Structures are given as structure tokens and as C-alpha cells.
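User: Structure please.
Assistant: Input sequence and predicted structure:
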Amino acid sequence: MNDMDVTSQDRATEQELSVVVPLYNEEESVGHLVAAICDAHEQAEAAAKQNGQAVTWELILVDDGSTDSTVQAANEACAEISLPTRVVTMNRNFGQTAAMQAGIDAACGELIATLDGDLQNDPADIPRMVDHLRANDLDLLVGKRAKRKDGLILRLIPSWIANRLIAKVTGVRIRDYGCSLKIYRASIIRQISLLGEMHRFIPAWIASVTHPSRIGEIDVNHSPRQFGQSKYGISRTIRVILDLVSVLFFLKYRARPGHFFGTVGLAVGAVGVVMMGIVMFSKLVVGEDIGTRPMFLLGGLAMLSSLQLICFGVLAEMLTRIYFDSSNNSTYSVRETHRNAASCNAGLLSSHSTGDLAHVPFRRAA
């Protein structure tokens, strides 16, 4: 399937769970992966039948511009199974985050599961994770890779540092941000748009539209890579740090950027005032020549920078207000509205009374 758009007919066929798998040069893995997902579905189906229930899954494979035979292998594997499956083929390699977003956009399920296509995540964990999410009324359940099978220097140590840094900065206490095996409520994950390489920070983004207490973590299996080579290296540490700065800004200051730039501007200005005060004391009291003193130049530069930052903050506030006023976006999100009998009889219906979630700044336009 080359078209990433989901038709109205697709949407009308609601699934309980959509399993989204981004693929990039995984021709040797994809057949084994599809078989493992089918086994997990049969496991969930058998458990549901014992309780007199039905389980409906769909599988969405997203090929992120692979240069090998991944698409062909995926189509061949999907032709042999009864599980509803779509293979979404990207025009080129856009990156894992974009591929994951494409799969989420194509998904029809009430819940959405994501996992890597390299067989390191175990699809057999999915039924257990779905049950845990429902039992604990969570919006996001993150897998924590138990006994992780990765290299110590290039993978484990950088991941350990990154996880603790991200948790410290964002306030979302997840021990394994890098695990791709996650279960989302579709109504929640569709409120954010995944850009750049932001898939590592999904729990933090989710915390911007739901309470962190509705984000859980559970141990999952992890296997060593069987085929191909890892797409990650030590260079990703730099990208994680840069992305973390962006996440911090948008999570805390997206609706009030003037506070961010104003705070920095006032701090820089205070330093400038102190430096200029020292210089003026030297000139007026001590009688020293200040024309060539570096502190005089730095103090003046700091005060000028302070003024520029404060003005930039005012402009950012104006742009933010224009953004919210001219779009359907809001600074808040409503889960549901409960009405008593009197309000129903009086016809007092709220625009959010159906239980649908309101739009928020990161929601992808329809």
C-alpha cells in the first residue's frame, strides 16, 4: 500500500488494537516479526474466548524508505496470514519518528501498540500490556526492557544517562524512554504530532495532555538483534540533548513564552547592572579609567541583550495568542463531562459532553 491516507471505509472498521511497526532495511526480520505478532494475536484471542469476548487486531507495517527487499518481504509475509494488515510505503527515509507517526495516522484501533521491527521487542508482551493498561485505566503503558541485550559502552551507558536526564528535566519518571514497545490510547496519542526525532520523548509529550499518573511502565522481554545492524550509534546522544531542550521549552512555556525569554532577559540584565555598577564605582569613587575595561563593554552588552530578550518574549507572546485565537487549538484538554438529570432535561449540552478530548496545541490538523 503506497497511500498513507486512511479512507472513511477504513475508519469505519474500528479495531480494538492497531499494532504499528516502523521498518527500515529489515528484510530478514519482517517475516519472523509478522509470524510472532500473529502468535501474540492468537494468544490474546484464546484468552478472550475463555471470557466470552472477542479480540480484533490489525497490523500496520510502515516501510521507511528501505533500500533492500523489506517491502517485498513484508507483502509476502502478510499475504499468508488472516490478520488484517496494511503495508505503508514511505517515499524515502524520513526517520523512525515520521514512520511511527504515519502508522499512528493510519491506525483504526481504540488502542495503538508500537514496537521495533528488529525482533528485539517481543510481540508476546502485547496482550499482557493491553490487559495491564485497561486494568489500571492508563493512557500510556511503556515497556521497560528487562535484562537488556545491548552493548554496554555504545548502548547501555548512554541510554542510562539519557533516561535519568530526561526524567529529571521533564518530571515524568520513566526508567526506559528508549523502548519502542508501548501501548497508547488512540484518543491520547493523536493529540500530539511527532516531529524530528521526538519518539524518545513520547511519555513527556503525553504528560502534556494527560496526568502523569495515567502513564505506566511494565517489564518486557528483550532479545539480542538477530539480523542486520543497529541504526543507532553514540552520535544520538547529541541529538537527544538538543531534542530535550526543545521538549523542555514546549512542555513548560508553549502557552507563555514571554515568561521564558523574560526570565532569561531579566537575569542577564541583572548581571549587566551589577557589572555597570562596579564600573561606575571605579570611575566615580576610585577615579580609575574605565574606557578600556572589559567589564564596561560586557556590562553594556548584557543590558542590551536583556532588552532584546524581553522584547523577543513580548513578540513570542503575541504570536502565541495569534496562534491560539486563529486555530481550533486550545491550551487545555477535556477528557469527559458528566451531567446530572436536571442538566440533560434542560438541554444544557457542552461541546465536550460526548467525552471526546478537546484539541490541544500539538494535535495534527485533520
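Residues 8-252 form a domain with the Spore Coat Polysaccharide Biosynthesis Protein SpsA; Chain A fold (CATH 3.90.550.10).
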